[in-house]
User: Fold this.
Amino acid sequence: MKHADEMQALHRRAWEEIPWLVNGRIAAAEREALESHLRHCADCRDELALQQRLRDGLLRQAQPAADADAGLARLWQRIDAEAAMTPADRRSSTWLRWLAAAVVIQAIALAALLGANFGAATPQYRTLSADAPPPPEAIRAVFAAELPLGELQQVLDRAGLRIVDGPTEVGAYTVYTLVPRGPRDVALQRLRADARVRFAEPAAEAGAP
Amino acid sequence: MHLVTVNEPPGPAERDNPRDLELLGRIARGDRRAFEAFYRNYHGRLTRFLARLTAQQTVVEEVVNDTLWTVWRNAGAFRGGSQVSTWVMGIAWRCGLKALRRTGPAAVEAPAAPGEAASYPFAEQEMQQWIQAGLQQLPVEQRTTLELAYYFGHSLEEIAAIMECPLGTVKGRMFHARIKLRNLLPALGGAASGEKP
Assistant:
């Protein structure tokens, strides 16, 4: 009985190793044992033949179209564009991606908050979509390009502001007080006094940026 | 869109490795000609590999370039712990999975008729159709395991490294792929039955 179990275990192991004999990647010692088993196991010989046919079929399949020249040209464009970026650009692009996600989350939270607190009294606050006009308290601001994310947060915290939109193509953000911590003009003065802020104007008057 | 030539499989990894290593060393130093040679060596096989994951040709092209962009950026970090081809295919597998999560699974395109079809007997074409139909029934991990072993000629250990999984997982995927294909491909198997070992 034990002998039968051993034979079955050998058979199962041989069966498992057949693909690696077929593709020529089986270790020498295992190959010898497998070939020895194959000599007296018709089932494994059938399986070997089947797997060889399968491999032959795969090897004969047509190759998908592949235009290496066009692909390479696209990749050089990408690599060269990245190489042309300054280190500050690269840092900026990295944290801007993070910031973009944060802005979306904050905008959703803010929209919910405003909807709950002020929605009925001030209908212009109902949404903060790109098409909606900026609320009267909103400030349009541009920050120093090399400003790290932590410092940006510091600037905003000091002025009691949160980002609700941006950046635009020229890197401008729409910011405004999340809760009424002070009149807009105080926040504007704080922003303008900070050397890391390049531009700060009431959004309604700031126009394009 | 397919070429009409019979596919030329890649050579054994051991044969290509010295050339790949030499190119990688030059790429790490910013040698663009070396990268172009490397790109051309791998472009076809990566396209074939990734076309097994998705039928969207634009996604395949994008992931091929993501893979080779990673090679350009990280050539200097390759320490020779594996064959270069194993390293590259591992990058492609990870990039491909990421793209699949983004774009969703897509049916793998049926292949064009084998190249120089007139030279194949009808049974050969029929077999190709059965193989393709069978492969489409397999989960992507099993299909990839089979492709890495039979088309790309990778060993069990190399496939485990590429797919970042234990050897036992590769064995299991190969086992289940074979059983499933055996049951699905009666024409291929001839008299083969669906019985297990």
Notes: The longest strand of chain B covers residues 2-6. Chain B is about 65% helix and 5% strand.
